[in-house]
Amino acid sequence: MNERELKHDLRLVAAQFAILGDFRSAAPYGSGHINDTYAVEIDQSGSPVRYIIQRINHQVFKNPQAVMQNIERVTRHLRQKLRARAEEGISRRLLTLVPTLDGRTWHVDSAGNHWRCYLFIEKARSHDLVESPRQAYEAARAFGRFQKDLADLPAPRLHETIPNFHNARFRFDQLLQAVQEDRQNRAITVKEEIGFCLSREKMVEVWPALQAQGLLPERVTHNDTKVNNVMLEDTTGEGICVIDLDTVMPGLALYDFGDLCRTACCPTAEDERDLAKVAMRQEMFEALVRGYLSAAGEFLCPAEKEQLSFAASLITFEIGIRFLADHLAGDCYFKIHRAGQNADRARVQFKMVESFERQAESMNAIVHQTPS
Ligand code: ADP
Ligand code: GN1
Ligand code: MG
């Protein structure tokens, strides 16, 4: 895609940030479903330097300012932790916001779009599909460390950038509403999938019951830990940087572990149409448990540890519900690139839920056998 075909004028946007050098090019980047992400190349005295520039989707994040305030606080805290540990290469180990010319961390353009700019983390990449247990281990370790480093984030509580984001009961009720409204007359085509959800309604009550007993503490969590939201270093394979911080807010540790399982245990793309290929990979689950507990094991309480394997089923179910509800509502939330893509995404999630359920016993055994 050449620059003139881009939806936005990235040269103009880049000029609002304190970036030295001459604009060279901009191209859409990554495979996120929400924001518009661009890799922008700048010529700095003869060398190409890249930046990530993103337009925050303000239909999804109704208060982009709150998103940016959270990210500022979280990255500042993480930077202090890395400095205290005297870690090397700190600017590759956390997201670094590039300020605007007037010293803010985001820019609002004339059309009301909110933009931010990050240093580009080079020689590392995020993977849509996990290819080895080592990758699963590293991704889980990085997210575990992220939770651990944020455990002592000073008050006040972070903003809830999307209220009820992981409230499974709320998501279930949204699906019921989408079925009832059936705006696109699609319900008839996904009867089986709707039935699948209705038959599992009880799942959404499990964590509220434990929370009511005070057994699942609120923590600072990432809330969007799909595996392509962590960068693995090219040379060492180490999980070096957690990215996509828009949904960092108060939550349950289990949300993060569950979403990791949803993506890292799945052997196919999220929207695979050949469901025969979709089944949970136990060796990846085992690696996720080891990686996550190697960092988070010391602060998790017994009830959290006990729920790790159910987290895989529940979060996969919840996100399947969201895809299905969006398909019924007319694909207003998740970006799609072809008709029916959200229904395909939902089907993959439901197939994974069944697969997790079938292997629940051995998943629990893995959790119990893993030292923390
Ligand atoms: P979305 O919310 O749309 O998922 P992300 O923040 O996850 O957006 O960014 C999309 C992709 O861009 C990521 O999966 C990653 O590959 C890449 N990316 C994001 N931030 C950086 C960065 N600072 N350095 C290098 N790549 C990045
Ligand atoms: C979205 O932004 P991205 O693509 O990393 C979504 C997640 C879903 C995920 C499903 C803010 O994540 O909640 O789990 O798609 N993010 C938001 O792939 O809704
Ligand atoms: Mg992302």
Task: Record keyword descriptors for this entry.
single chain, 372 residues, alpha+beta, Phosphorylase Kinase, domain 1, 2 domains, five-stranded antiparallel sheet, three-stranded antiparallel sheet, 13 helices, binds adenosine-5'-diphosphate, binds 2-acetamido-2-deoxy-1-O-phosphono-alpha-D-glucopyranose, binds magnesium ion
Strand content: 5-15%
* Bound molecule kinds, no repeats: adenosine-5'-diphosphate, 2-acetamido-2-deoxy-1-O-phosphono-alpha-D-glucopyranose, magnesium ion
- The helical percent reads 40-55%
Tell me, what is the CATH class of the largest domain? Alpha Beta
Alpha-carbon Rg, integer? 21 Å
Q: Strand order of the main beta sheet, please? A: 1-2-3-5-4
Under the CATH scheme, which architecture of the largest domain would be assigned? Alpha-Beta Complex
**Mean pLDDT across all amino acids:** 97
CATH topology of the largest domain: Aminoglycoside 3'-phosphotransferase, Chain: A, domain 2
Q: Superfamily at the CATH H level of the largest domain?
A: Aminoglycoside phosphotransferase (APH), C-terminal lobe
- Oligomeric nature of the chains: single chain
Encode the helix/strand succession as letters: HEEEHHEEEHHHHEEEEHHHHHH
In one word, what is the shape? globular
Summarize the biggest pleated sheet.
Answer: 5 strands, antiparallel
| Discrete helix count | 13
Distance between the termini: 48 Å
**Which structural category do the helix and sheet elements fall into?**
alpha+beta
Which stretches are low in confidence, meaning pLDDT under 50 for 5 or more residues running?
none
Number of strands: 10
